[in-house]
Fold this sequence. Notes:
The chain has twelve helices and seven strands. By secondary structure, the chain is an alpha/beta fold. It has four domains: 1-102, Alpha-Beta Complex (Conserved hypothetical protein from pyrococcus furiosus pfu- 392566-001, ParB domain); 104-145; 159-213, no CATH class; 219-268, no CATH class. It has a five-stranded mixed sheet.
Amino acid sequence: MMDTSKNILDIPIEDILQNQFQPRSKFDEIRLRELADSIRVHGVLQPVVVTRFMDKYRLVLGERRTRASKLAGLTHVPAIVCDADEKNMLELALIENVQRQDLNPLEEARAYYFLTEEFKLTHKEISERVGKSRPYISNLLRLLSLPEYIKNDIEAGVLSVGHARAILALDGEKSQLKAWVHVKERAMSVRQTEDYVTSLLRIQKSAVKTGKYDAIIDPDWQELINGLASKLNADIRINATQGKLEFHYKNVEELEKIVEYLVGLVEYG
């Protein structure tokens, strides 16, 4: 770990370079301005942490304080200059932000991914460093496999992690995007999304068993067919494998009722 037992120096803000391992990509402008207002009155109460980089400094901890200090018009900030290798820089920046709950789920997931890919840390090792469970780390990393449109909505707060985890149960980008559109258009809750995905999975499972993959019908279509069947008191089925909409009747009376309804749709629909 880094040694911070050194004197605090006032260093020029313009000499501080951004930490390339900073996991957070979005900063709340309102909160930044609030912090800037506080800094104008009280100054920077907690020093930032930097490492030397050529004739300048590389920021390790204190991104928000540095940005807010610029907004407040400061030219210098108090800083602790320490030695830190690249691995520690990322770990420290990540741990600080995770513990302060300043990262959105995708930013946090990308930071964990970086740790696994660049520094070959296991999920267990990451969990020990950030104080999160292994399942939490693993589930968060799964978000990165979602289509970009869905990930953008998670970052924007349009969809929650709960929505995303439900949609992740579906195989393939096409199925996930279709579910995403369905959920957004209907402003579904997480529980409604889970129920919807469960219905899709049930249909997919049935298709796998029968080998009729073309027979996967959107639950919305099935709901419409069920409503029509109830209205006509008839047995109506979708045969997607053969591309048929089938009306089954028991007697002439049922047939007449179905035909009259369909004729009415043609003439007056």
